[in-house]
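Session log. Operator J.P. requested a structure for one protein chain; no other inputs attached. Running the standard single-chain path with C-alpha cell output.
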Amino acid sequence: MSGSDREPLSQHEDRPRLRAVTLLPSAATIGNLLSGLLAIFFCLLSIRALYADMPLREFGPRLSEFFPSYLAVGAYCIAAALLFDALDGRLARLARRTTEFGAQLDSLADVVSFGTAPVVLLLTLLLRKATPPEGLPVEVGLIEWRIGLLGGLVYLSCAAIRLARYNVENVRDESGQRRFSGLPVPGAAGVVAALLILHEDYVGSPGFAGWIRVCFGPLLLALGLLMVGRIDYVHVFNLYARREQPPFHLVVMVVVLVALWWWTQEVLAVVALAYLFSGLVFGLRSDPPGPTGRTHPEQHPQRADLN
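Structure written below.
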C-alpha cells in the first residue's frame, strides 16, 4: 500500500471520538427536544380533532382552564421545553462538566423546540381557521394566511442562523454570561407560546382572539429580525437569580406569582412581551457592546468553556 493510500486512514484514526457524555445535563436537553416534538404532535391532534370526535380530556375545572385545546397543550409543551433548557445548564454547572457535545446537542434541540415547534403551532392555528370543515365559517383570509406563512419561514430561518452564529461567536469570559446579543431564541419562542395560550383562552371572544391572530404573522417577522439583530437582551437568570437583590424585588416576585395563579394566560403574555420590549427600550439606550460582548441567545454560562 502506498503512502498516499495510508494517509486518509491515519487522518481518520487521529479524529477524536466521543466516549462519554454527562448524563443529567444531556438528559435535560433531550427533555427539551422531546417537549418540542410533543408540541408538534399536539398540532397534528388539533387538525385531526376537526374531522373526528376527539374531545380533549377533562382534567377538572381548574386544569381545563390551562388546557382548553390541543394547541394550548402544545404551547405549554414549549413552556416545558423552556424549563428543560434552563435546567440543563444548571445541572452541567453542578456536575462541573462542560463539553462540546452538550453545547451542540443543546443547539440542535433548540432548533426543534424553539424554532420549528412555534412555527408549526402558528401555522396549525391559521390553517384550521382558513380551511375549516363544512358548516364552519372561514375566519382567516388568504392574505392573512400568506403573511403568517411568510412570518413562519422567516422566523425559523432566523432562529437557525442565530443558533449557528453562536457556534462562531461563543464568548468564554464573564461578559458572555450577562447579556445576549440579539433576542434569545427561547425568548422568542416564549412570546409565541404565551400569545397562543392567550388566544386559545379567549377563543370564545372572536374580536380579541381575531386581533391576536392577525398580529401573529407580522410578529414572527419582527421576532426573526430581532433574533439576528444586535440589540442586547439581559440574561434573566444571571441578573436576578445569581445576584443579591433589594427586598422590594422579592415583594414584586410574590405579587407576580399570585397574579400568575389568578390570571395565568394574561400574566404569561405580559411577562413575555415585557421581556421582548425590554431589549428595545434598554438596548437602544445603551452603547453597543464590543466584539467581546457578543453572546449566544441560548447561552449556557456553564458551557461557555468547552472542552
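Operator note: Residues 22-303 form one domain.
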